[in-house]
Prior knowledge:
The chain is mostly helical. The chain contains three helices and two strands, in the order αββαα. A two-stranded antiparallel sheet has the order 1-2.
Amino acid sequence: MxxxxxxxxxxxxxxxxxxxxxxxxxxxxxxxxxxxxxxPLVILLLAFFIFGAVVCLLAMAPMVFRHRRxxxxxxxxxxxxxxxxxxxxxxxxRVPVPDSVANN
Length: 104
């Protein structure tokens, strides 16, 4: 499975590298207020892809932290229940002592 994963990554890399080599024309990106940037098309595409990925990660961060807190709470609850279950099993495993022996 590991070799198949590496082959797929190699194919994806070759495809993206070929795409980059075919799109090396200089393009001008016009912003508001007369600002503009001239750069190769593939560089601008890569920059906007990275910007989009960062924005998505920042948007997902609160949800991830909320889920981690919930998991932590659930793990604590599970640990408490497991401890109570073990104590209950220990109590059940003890041999009951008759009252006549316990009073002496």
